[in-house]
Amino acid sequence: MTSPQHIVINDVGPRDGLQNQPKVLSIEERSSLINALIDAQLPAIEVGAIVSPKAVPAMAGSTELLSTLPANASHYSMLIPNQKGYELGRDAGAPVMSLVIATSNTMNEKNIRRTTDDIMQQSMNILAQAKAENQCVQAYLATAWACPFEGQMSLDSLLSLGAQLLEAGANKLIIADTIGAASPDQVAVFMNKLVTEWGSEKLACHFHDTRAMGLANVYAAIEQGVREFDASIAGLGGCPFAPGASGNVATEDVTLLVEQMGFRTGIDLEKLISAADLAITLTGTAQGGRSKRWLEKNLASVATN
Amino acid sequence: MTSPQHIVINDVGPRDGLQNQPKVLSIEERSSLINALIDAQLPAIEVGAIVSPKAVPAMAGSTELLSTLPANASHYSMLIPNQKGYELGRDAGAPVMSLVIATSNTMNEKNIRRTTDDIMQQSMNILAQAKAENQCVQAYLATAWACPFEGQMSLDSLLSLGAQLLEAGANKLIIADTIGAASPDQVAVFMNKLVTEWGSEKLACHFHDTRAMGLANVYAAIEQGVREFDASIAGLGGCPFAPGASGNVATEDVTLLVEQMGFRTGIDLEKLISAADLAITLTGTAQGGRSKRWLEKNLASVATN
């Protein structure tokens, strides 16, 4: 008898989700959502971003928020845009910090007014410092399959940027379809190459449902050996640079998919539904995952944990 | 240079979709929806069902409806529950008639109060008559992966029933996840076997999005060589025997998926969006496919035809 394989789901609702909601939540509300996810035994949660509160009001006070959370109750990560963010995150005790590098130069220039070379140089410096200071830093490779400005992206830039980041000590690479543009055949081609190159333990995927292909993309990545995924409670989110873009794949949908495929997530589905209800109440805009209604009626029939 | 492969999409909105809507449409309204699908160049459309108007008011007058449609503008099919239905369909000039056999005996008994043996015997008789009369009859194998009463189904009954139906002259088998219960790994296992056994030209798949896996299941079936799918304009539908079940996979979502994968459908996406808008207006309940909003803004960037 072999024990079932595990898939790690990282809930990015409290960051990628809330950042793209029209309503700005208080630190207490954000904390309550994260605690609901902890109750549901999410193994990893992106709790916030250390960014200018002027630029991103929804993420104001993220280090303060972190200090309200129970220590080690989940694998907490925080997004950092630069070295100052790294130092603030380190000082606040962020267990994992996430860099973001778009594989598209135009996206980097439009999004953060820096070239890819600039942002890579900064990332290498942060990774070197993190190594010296024994901090865990991972990197998002954004617009991995397509960029709203440059269109379809090549695998070459992904391979080149990813190799440099891993070499510099990045703990993991999260390959992100930032604008929800990839189709599952494209996901299969890229992830097949990346898993072969770097191994699945160094990789995660991040999908949006903009073109309705989010879950198909998760499946395509699993087939290539990917075992870690970002997802967002109740499907919170979107992308501010792509109006009309849907949110991240919903945590409840991804959890049901992988559990039914025979993987184990450790997530408590009943409490996950409660967390989704809370996300819907707090934001007033989230819809909940498409499987939520079915899940509510059939919790007993889904084997988890 | 190889020419792109083709995928056939059969819109079942006017039958499987409307049959499960709370609002009963008039024949004129149903005809207007079908004509919008014809305008969008849907290659196949399930236009109605020849059933008792008492039992299924939404499908009343389906042969009359057929007579209002332009001849040969699409591959029209009609669902028939028995020999009387076959004869009415034949006399009305239905180009294709569809039998439905659940692979689950309990489902057959609950749904139509007959055993699988009974319904198979009836189906064999109809297929024999259709062969003698040169009529095109295909067969749905319903609850192929799972039944609400019996749970997960085995591949054996599917193989046995399917072989008998093909042997008796069924033009095609449509493997239907009637209650939207299958996950893509399960779809891959079954369709791999069936395509190997009977060839993809004898097969189509029919998926519902109840557990949010509809598009992932379409992708999994494509990977196994399936090249024909049912879908429902604007995601109309559901299953009356499974409250809370979502509708069929939306035609606009399936079309976008397969076109982006490099297949050709022949469908005019702009007119497809108009047909979805009409379905939403007529029913008052349909939501539209999840990709619809993105598609509306990005029609120009999607290469079709």
The CATH topology of chain A is what? TIM Barrel
Query: How many structural domains are formed by the residues of chain A?
Result: 1
Rg from alpha-carbon coordinates of chain A? 18 Å
- Biggest interface, CB < 8 A: A-B, 31 and 31 residues
Largest sheet descriptor of chain A: 8 strands, parallel
Q: Which CATH top level class of chain A fits?
A: Alpha Beta
The strand line-up of the biggest sheet of chain A is: 9-8-5-4-3-2-1-10
Family (chains A, B): Belongs to the HMG-CoA lyase family.
InterPro entries (chains A, B): Aldolase_TIM (IPR013785), HMGL (IPR043594), PYR_CT (IPR000891)
Domain Pyruvate carboxyltransferase (chains A, B): 7-273
GO molecular function (chains A, B): hydroxymethylglutaryl-CoA lyase activity; metal ion binding
